[in-house]
Amino acid sequence: MSRIGRTPVVVPPKVQVNWTEDNFVTMKGPRGELKGQIDPELMLKLEDGSLQVSRPSDSKKHKAKHGLYRTLLNNMVVGVTNGYTKQLEIHGVGYRAAKVGDNLVIMVGYSHPVEVQPPAGITLSIDGTDSATKATKISVSGIDKQLVGQVAADIRAIRKPEPYKGKGIRYTGEKIRRKAGKAGKVGGKKK
Predict the structure, then answer these.
(1) How confident is the model at residue 34 (pLDDT cuts 50, 70, 90)?
(2) Which residues contact 114 (CB under 8 A, 6 or more apart)?
C-alpha cells in the first residue's frame, strides 16, 4: 500500500466533511468551504475524527491515485482550518507595489503600472519594506492551496528575477543563480 495513501487524514472537530456517492467532497471549517471531486473508484471512510482513503485493487492506476487524492483531501482540511500563504519579494531600484482597494498595483520597470485583481477567495497584502534587503514584501493568502500557488506564480511572472543583478519579483527565500557580467567590464581596457 502507498505510505502516503494509507496515512489517515486527521479531521479536527470544527471541520465538517460530507461526500456524495460519486465522491464529490465538501469541507466546511472556520475559514470557509472547499469542494472537490475525488475519483469515484476510491472509497472514503470517516471514523474517530480521521478520514481514510482506500483503493479497490493494487493496479498501477489505483496505486497512482491513492496517495494523490489523500493529499488533496489533507490540503482541503488544512485550508479550511489554517489557510495557506505564499510570500513574494520585489527587488530593484524603483520597483514597488501599492494596494488600491482589493487590487495590487505593481511598478517594476515597465512604462505602465501592472494591476493585479485577486480572484474570489484570495487576499493580497503588502507587508512593508525589509530594511536589510530593501525589498517590498507581498503576501498571497487563501484557503485553496492550488489557487494561492497559481496567483503567486502569476505575480512572479510579471517580472521574473533576472540573473545579472537579481532584479524582479521572487518568492521569499528563493535563491537566484547569478551570472557574471561581460568579461570586458571586469579587466578594463585590453591592449
Answers:
(1) very high
(2) 105, 106, 107, 108, 158
pLDDT tens sequence across 81-109:
999 999 999 999 989 999 999 999 999 99
Q: 184, 190 in Cβ contact below 8 A? A: yes
Cα–chain center distance at 167: 22
Same domain, 106 and 154: yes
Q: How many domains does the chain have?
A: 2
Sequence-distant (6+) residues with CB within 8 A of 149 are: 84, 86
Region 166-187 average pLDDT:
83
Containing structural domain, residue 119: 84-171
Query: 3-state class of 169 per DSSP?
Result: strand
Could you write out the DSSP letters of every residue in 44-57? EEEETTEEEEE-S-
* Domain at 76, CATH number: 3.90.930.12
The answer on 75 and 95 residing in a single domain is no
pTM equals 0.86
Q: In angstroms, rounded to a whole number, what is the distance separating the alpha carbons of residues 92 and 136? A: 9
C-beta atoms surrounding 168 within 10 Å? 20
